[in-house]
Specification:
Elements lengths: L1 H14 L2 H7 L4 H19 L9 H23 L2 H8 L2 H12 L6 H16 L7 H27 L3 H15 L1 H5 L6 H26 L4 H7 L2 H14 L5 H24 L17
Helix pairs in contact: 1-11, 1-13, 2-5, 2-11, 2-13, 3-4, 3-9, 3-11, 4-5, 4-8, 4-9, 5-8, 5-13, 5-14, 6-8, 7-14
């Protein structure tokens, strides 16, 4: 249905606003990560009753991976460009390809393995731009966010119907784990508080609710392609609202990663393999 696809596109648009909001805020990365996740946890718990139940040990592991994803993404955004942060996080399919045989006993197809060197090429280009020490660290944290997101995908594929609860508890873990360093940050302005509410309620909470709704009547492969709108729009909003211009090599590397993700997703659909990008209830991404 057209409505379901519009839900997915709306979710991708909301996810894509993270970079601009983070750049506009005067709060530290710790404060934004903690506040955003706590607001999102409350929003999701109220909107999705199934998210309030207790977790199994597998669900807890997936929640920890989710928490790592969202916290590292925000910290990376404070240190490197928004484009670098989102594109490097979107290397998660590469890690899924490498880890799925070990953790899920799922062997990748030849086409999926062929995508690995393409991902590596795109990944390497991010470090060709002139970087200061902080930006280099931000790129490393963004890579860590991609790895955590891959573990979150694998974990949520293993727990199935616990996905909603993983998201609620994952946000609680994320918010609580960085609460102590967050307390030592600068005093928030009215704009900062408004941005935190926006990030928690809309950029994470509402976006995930829309994504869940859209997935009900949209094939997972098609959904994973539709939400590639997120990394395309993220640097656009950041440039328009915060004036941040990504490096030329980052744009080239990000384009390669996006094309490789789309190519691997389409190849997987033809070969009967489930796509490993942001597709399953795992993203009910994660978003970032």
């Amino acid at each position: 249905m057209l409505r379901s696809r519009l839900y997915l596109l709306a979710a991708a648009v909301l996810w894509s606003t993270a970079g601009a909001a983070v750049k506009l805020s005067t709060l530290s990365g710790w404060q934004i990560a903690s506040g955003r996740s706590l607001v999102a946890a409350l929003t999701l718990a109220l909107a999705i009753p199934a998210g309030r139940r207790r977790l199994s040990w597998r669900g807890f592991a997936a929640a920890v991976a989710y928490a790592g994803t969202v916290v590292l993404f925000i910290l990376a955004n404070k240190l490197t460009t928004s484009a670098n942060a989102i594109f490097l996080q979107d290397t998660a399919p590469l890690y899924v390809l490498l880890l799925s045989p070990l953790l899920l006993r799922e062997r990748p197809s030849r086409g999926e393995l062929a995508a690995v060197p393409v991902f590596l090429l795109g990944l390497s280009l991010f470090f060709l731009d002139q970087l200061d020490p902080g930006q280099f660290l931000g790129n490393v944290l963004a890579l860590g966010s991609g790895l955590a997101f891959a573990l979150c995908i694998l974990g949520l594929r293993a727990v199935g119907e616990e996905g909603s609860a993983v998201l609620v508890w994952g946000n609680i873990i994320a918010g609580a784990s960085v609460l102590l360093p967050a307390l030592g940050g600068p005093a928030p302005t009215a704009l900062d508080l408004g941005l935190l509410v926006f990030l928690g309620v809309f950029q994470l909470g509402l976006a995930y609710a829309l994504f869940q709704r859209g997935l009900r009547e949209t094939p997972a492969v098609e959904a994973s392609l539709l939400i590639l709108l997120e990394p395309v729009l993220n640097p656009v909003w950041t440039f328009l609202f915060a004036g941040e211009r990504p490096g030329k090599w980052a744009l080239v590397g990000g384009t390669i990663i996006l094309l490789a993700t789309a190519w691997r997703t389409l190849l997987g659909s033809r070969g009967g393999h489930a796509s490993a990008s942001k597709e399953t209830p795992a993203h009910e991404g994660a978003g970032s």
